[in-house]
UniProtKB/TrEMBL annotation:
Membrane topology note: Single-pass type I membrane protein
Name under which the protein is recorded: Ig-like domain-containing protein
Pfam families: V-set
Organism: Danionella cerebrum
Listed GO biological process terms: cell surface receptor signaling pathway; cellular response to lipopolysaccharide; immune response; negative regulation of T cell proliferation; positive regulation of T cell proliferation; T cell costimulation
Keyword field: Cell membrane, Disulfide bond, Glycoprotein, Immunoglobulin domain, Membrane, Receptor, Signal, Transmembrane, Transmembrane helix
């Protein structure tokens, strides 16, 4: 691993560091991290090596020449630049967004890589759908009293009340 790093550094002059793999679902949002100790730097975000995601230059977002698949989907965090945080948020993720992203930090000549894996969006069951799938659920709105008591508790209360009346 160290030998690979040194060969890469000698051949390209860039410091390369694999940061992470991020996972998102179609239609969701994902944060692609890029943290750097250089607090005042220019940063170039690229997708699959060449597609321009966004540039951050002198503390400003530059979207000129931005690839169409990123238009109105990228958010940066200017208040975090002073802390060395050049992460971006990608909204409304599509399958076309899958792949390797690079965050190139100009001043330190560092390139950070983030692999984005895009999965199919999963549908979470709603309360109604859950009840429909298990009609014999021990507690549901249909099987409860006005006070929201489960039927077994309600029956126990009625039984105790009836016994108390009989003993009087």
């Amino acid at each position: 691993m160290l030998a690979r790093f040194l060969v890469h550094l000698l051949l390209t002059g860039k410091v390369f560091m694999q940061v992470s793999t991020e996972i998102s679902a179609v239609g969701e949002s994902v944060i692609l991290p890029c943290l750097q100790q250089d607090l005042d730097t220019n940063v170039f975000w690229r997708h699959k090596g060449s597609a321009k995601v966004i540039n951050i230059m002198k503390g400003k977002e530059v979207t000129e020449g931005q690839s169409e698949i990123f238009k109105d989907r990228i958010q940066t965090f200017p208040s975090e630049y002073s802390k060395g945080n050049y992460s971006i948020k990608l909204s409304d993720v599509e399958y076309a967004h899958e792949g390797t992203y690079s965050c190139f930090i100009v001043e330190s000549n560092t390139e950070k890589k983030i692999d984005l894996v895009v999965n199919e969006k999963t549908v979470r069951p709603t309360k109604t759908a859950t009840m429909e799938k298990s009609p014999q659920a021990p507690f549901s709105e249909e099987n409860s009293s006005a006070e929201g008591q489960p039927p077994k508790v309600l029956m126990l209360q009625i039984t105790v009340l009836g016994l108390a009346l009989l003993l009087m």
